[in-house]
Amino acid sequence: MVSSLTSVAGVTALLEEQDPKLQAYALQKLNSLVDQFWAELADSVARIEELYEDESFPERQLAALVASKVYFYLGEMEDALSFALGAEALFDVEQRTEYVETVVSKAIDQYIEQRSASPSDGSTGKGDTSARLAAIVDKMVQRCMTGKEYRQVLGIALEARRLDIIQQVFDSTQDRELLVYVLEMVMSVVHARDVRRQVLELLVQLFPSLSEPDYFSTAQCYVYLNEPKRVSELLRSLLDKATSDERSLLIAYQTAFDLVEGATQEFLHHVQTDLQATAGNIANAEQVVRILQGEESIRLFRAFLHRANHADLAILKSTKDALDAHYSAYHSAVSLSNAFMHAGTGSDQFLRENLEWLAKASNWSKFTATAALGVLHRGSLQESISILQPYLPPEGGAASTSIYSEGGSLFALGLIHANHGAPILDLLTKTLRSNNAEVVQHGAALGLGAAGMATENEEVYEELRNVLYTDSAVSGEAAGYAMGMVYLGTGSAQATEEMMQYAQETQHEKILRGLAIGIALLHYGRESAADATIDELLSHKDAILRYGGVYTMALAYAGTGHNAAVRRLLHVAVSDGSDDVRRASVIALGFLLFRSPEHMPEMVQLLSESYNPHLRYGAALALGIACAGTGLDAALDLLEPLTKDTVDFVRQGACIAMAMILVQQNNVLNPRGEAARTTFDKMIHEKHEEAMAKFGAALAQGLIDAGGRNVTISLQGRGGSTNMAAVVGMALFTQYWYWFPMAHFASLALTPTAILGVTKSLELPAWDILSHARPSLFAYPPPVQTQTEKKLEKVETAVLSTTAKAQARQRTKAKQKAQAASAGEADMDVDAPKPTGEKATTDEANAAEASDKESAKAAAPSHADEPKEERIPNGSRVTVFQLKYLSCPAEARYVPVRPWTTSSSSQAAPEPAAARQLDLSVTGGRGGIVLLLDREPTAPFVPAVPDDSANDASATATAEEHAQAAATLASTSDDADAPAEATGVASSASAQEPEDAPKPVADEDVDMDEQAK
Fold first, then answer.
1. Could you tell me if residue 886 is inside a domain?
2. Which of 35, 209, 455, 674 is deepest in the core (most CB within 10 A)?
3. What is the pLDDT of residues 22-63, one digit of tens each?
4. Which of 459-497 are b and which e, b meaning 16 or more Cβ less than 10 Å from the residue's Cβ?
């Protein structure tokens, strides 16, 4: 019996025999005993190898198998794999042993490595790789196919560049979900652009061949392939069918809405042009063009944000009262907080109710306050000029009232039209060309960048370049940013060379910084194609250009999680000599890893504990960017200690990041949300808190309640693709460290969270959705309780011990006199003496605390009494956490035209811990605009909501009140003596000086940190 053996010396001795039969017998025995006696067999492995190498030996494969197992136990995986390949058919991948699983895993890794190193032909995938290695992989693929482990097979196929395996899986399953999985993976796992293109070309053949063609995913593939003509052909084919099939019309509309979310302005323009030229008289083509222009999406989302605004003005008022508006940093902080809190709602109620505070804005704080109107009214494309008319530069050479409000208004105009700028590009370009005031040019350039994003408009680029060549620090910096935004993602060699050359010639740090970020924007999404520029920037002796190199890597590889890029950023974070570069390299990690936020806390844990405060700040902001809107507990665990950091700007970054992570989470879903709000409020009202920490807390208050509590912060689109505008906006937002107005760009990353079901006439019908979760989990946070509502009670005066003793003696004497006077009378009941001093205070506090607990317990809703589900009316807020619990009622009149696939958890009433886990597998009900198919077309139409402005306080304001707010901001005079750089722009490492404080030297080139000191 095997168990009785203590040695295999006798068996190994047979290996030295000359008879091949004895040697074969010995190998058979050793193959069954190697798991137990591998250590003893290690001495004989050389002899076993000799038998394998002897081509005349009939059992060479058996010798290879035994040798492979010995090397496996010795930890020599390379040799174990090599001999396993030699074993050929004897190496059975069907066995579920540790040896087989490990060697197969090693084989797959080596196969992928060889395939990645060889030229891709996109066919059978054999190439120059080992045929035996490919055979093992093919066997493993067949094993997984038999076990229906299709995602594992597709993962191997993508990494090994085996398109034939993808085709094989599709032929076997005809499963749409697997194709969607391949589409998601190819944009995140496959880094070689040529291979990615081959996979996408395969997918555009497979999606239409489904039993129900997936036109939505097909269009998404065309966007990734940058094929606008094929998109227009797809839309035209759907419109051709629409005359007899209403579903095709709805699919065309839904596809157009999806394109608006995921494509660039230039791409959409080409689709519109081609569709108009070839559609002829096809009905509904004009409606598709209007959708592609973005007007319908903006109209629907603006109406939702306007109607559902739940911003709490009490928070803003409390912050305004706590921060002295004479400090430009504080005034800017409140302006930014108000802008974020009311982003897209069009509500200027806070401004109208606080005209005295608004009038205190001066110089750059006035610029920031005026630009904030662009965030408030974002998407008001038709009314933008009339809204900003009081602030815009006068025409016809009229005298300027305030260059700061004029510059801010031009920036606001660009923010209103961000990514939809065609109507106002001419106006901004004309102003940039004709107005010589550098503050006005600064605002016009930033506005052009936002409005002309990714348009590749050569005329606009040339005007910006002309401003750059004037060598004005203030306008030149904005021109550098804007040039990158206009040519976003083009990787233009000429533009890169021009910007790089001027960056090395200029003496202005502001211009240099603008160009460094501008170059990074040029290479957005270009991945390996940007490596040459990245290498040149990171090796430069100038720290600002190295800073730009870090951001170039962040934007070029945004959302890819590219391992080599992550390693390089980590190396820069610990090795560069500049704190700015090191801080930026840590922040850049957030851009690379936002698709896998669960990995981010582990990545930056040690950096968040670094001795260097710049690395701690970078770690905080990286967590905020990568984990935005997720409520990730691991990220909050790292951020909470940073809110108590000894350095003010670290506390600032921690507050901002915490707000980004906790957006749209109430106290029931995540109790940490309420704790964070308390932290922000306490920091703002703390008398001795540093100015920069208060600045961060104020911004955090706006971000956590952004968009009237109806938006989230996300760098991904609803379909899982990278949100270009959001990534760019967040990258520019981080530049607020040097220039506060740049914080407004965070508004580009705000995404409304609603389900807006519309019919073919693009109207919202009465349509309810089922939410299989307690209503309190996803409800709006309650309004804050103002301090005035709390009754002030008189605090008992403290009693000294000596006084207490004297009073006790007096009471004793009085008692004795009373007893003597009442001799003979009946005894009286005496109250027990009350405790005094510290004991009395403690007892009262304990009693009050117990009373509060009882009151809270009585007021708290009982989960048992709360319904387990609710019906959500069309046009309501639906958070990203709530999506997986939604379903359409079976009896509903309207059904979504897009397949609605939610997770299995939609049938269970979740607890908070489970509810705040994001389910990335939800591929259908992803919110946004949903086209609905009417199953009762003859029934009368019932609208979903009444008048859109019914719940908005701004709607009731008179025209005179709006005009008064405008006049207040536009009429306040500028401080002509204040240098352009001295207002509201100090480095976040230091507090902003008050307006009447001594000003620093008016030299645009003074380093911001030094100037702040």
1. yes
2. 455
3. 888 888 888 888 888 888 888 888 888 888 888 888 888 888
4. ebbebbbebbeeebbbbbbbbbbbbbbbbbbbbbeebbe
Domain boundary (881, 908, 934) is at 934
CA pair distance 894, 892, nearest whole angstrom: 5
3-state secondary structure at position 894:
strand
Amino acid at 433: R
pLDDT tens, residue by residue, 670-700: 899 999 999 999 999 998 999 999 999 999 9
Up-side HSE of residue 864: CA atoms within 13 Å toward CB? Answer: 0
Assess if residue 921 is contained within a domain.
yes
Average pLDDT value over all residues in the chain: 83
Tokens at 521, concatenated: 């924007």
Q: Which ranges of 826-885 does DSSP label H, i.e. alpha helix?
A: 837-859
The single residue listed with the structure tokens 């009905």 is: 283
Give the C-alpha distances (Å, rounded to integers) separating 403 from 427, 625, 962. 17, 34, 21
Q: How many CB atoms lie within 10 A of CB 868?
A: 13
d(CA 21, CA 12): 14
State the Cα–Cα distance between residues 484 and 520, nearest whole angstrom.
7
Residue 888 tokens read as: 């359409």
| pLDDT score for 967 | 63
The tally of domains found in the chain comes to 2
Q: Which domain holds residue 65?
A: 2-91
Burial of 320 (0-12, 13-18, 19+ CB in 10 A): buried
Quickly count helices (H) and strands (E) in the chain. 47, 8
Residue 177 CA to its chain's centroid (Å)? 25
Alpha-carbon 748 to chain mean position: 11
Closest CA to 452 of 427, 433, 471: 427
DSSP class of residue 577 equals S
For residue range 973-990, list pLDDT tens digits in order. Answer: 565 444 443 333 334 444
- The 10s digit of each residue's pLDDT in 632-668 is 999 999 999 999 999 999 999 999 999 999 999 988 8
Residue 856 has what pLDDT?
43
The rounded distance, in Å, linking the Cα atoms of 134 and 121 is: 16
pLDDT given at position 396:
64
The CA distances from residue 1013 to 196, 315, 905, 991, in Å, are: 50, 32, 55, 9
For residue 582, the tally of other CB atoms under 10 A from its CB is: 25
- Decide if pLDDT at 745 tops 90: yes
Which of 896, 917, 934 is at the close of a domain?
A: 934
Hey, which residues does 887 pair with through a beta bridge? 770
Structural contact between residues 729 and 747, judged by C-beta atoms closer than 8 angstroms: yes
For tokens 């911001």, what's the residue?
Answer: 1008
The alpha-helical segments, DSSP class H, found in 487-578 are 493-505, 509-522, 531-538, 543-556, 563-575
Q: Decide if 716 contacts 559 (C-beta within 8 A).
A: yes
What's CA 700's distance to the chain center, in Å? 15
Map residue 911 onto helix, strand or coil. Answer: coil
pTM summary value: 0.84
The answer to whether position 637 is within a domain reads: no
Structure tokens at 900: 């609605």
